[in-house]
Amino acid sequence: MKDIFGKALLDYYTNNYTEDIVTWTNISDKDSLPIPYLFRNYAEMPKLEQKALQLCKGKVLDVGCGSGSHSLYLQQKDFEVKAIDISKGAINVAKKRGVIYTEHKALLDETETFDTILLLMNGTGIFEKLIQVSNYLKHLKSLLNTNGQILIDSSDISYMYDEYYSKRYFGELDYYLSYKGDQELPLKWLYLDFETLKTACQSVGLNCEKVMDGKHYDYLARIN
Hints:
The protein is α/β, with parallel strands linked by helices and 224 residues long. The protein is 25% helix and 30% strand. Helix 1 runs parallel beside helix 4 (88-97).
């Protein structure tokens, strides 16, 4: 990976912000991702994210922490938080912003255990493909302390299709990023509707409940 996401975060943090990230998928046109949004405070977060932070307990793992906004809020509330991301640039920025415990690593390489695992901003995206969901859930289960919980959000994007997309699960997308003329290698990104997530959880011995719906086909779920 070129880590242009991390470069964009670092540019913003060091006052070199001149343009936003451009994103698009195999089913959607180019759109702008405002970099300042990635540095939002609690009051600027969607209700769904605020709810997830309110539900946190114990030792927390912030997966795909980005610039560290969720971790910073939890630290202010005296939580012990570990923030991880596959982007070196993101981890660098999170450290500079004051996140105490950070590590540049993928979720599947994590081995510590936690009371709460946070996967926000379409947390199911890192699963990449439907066929990999069970493996990720099994690994997440292995990272939970007794009575631990996973707080994860996603969206049901079936509304984006005129008819059922039969070649593969409709939530499996090819995701593209560009920034300042540089384009990231295409990513696999997964949106999971709630019922599919719930079924996958049941298949590996996990309970899944919907906590709340968001404003645009999105939802927050708690898994334990």
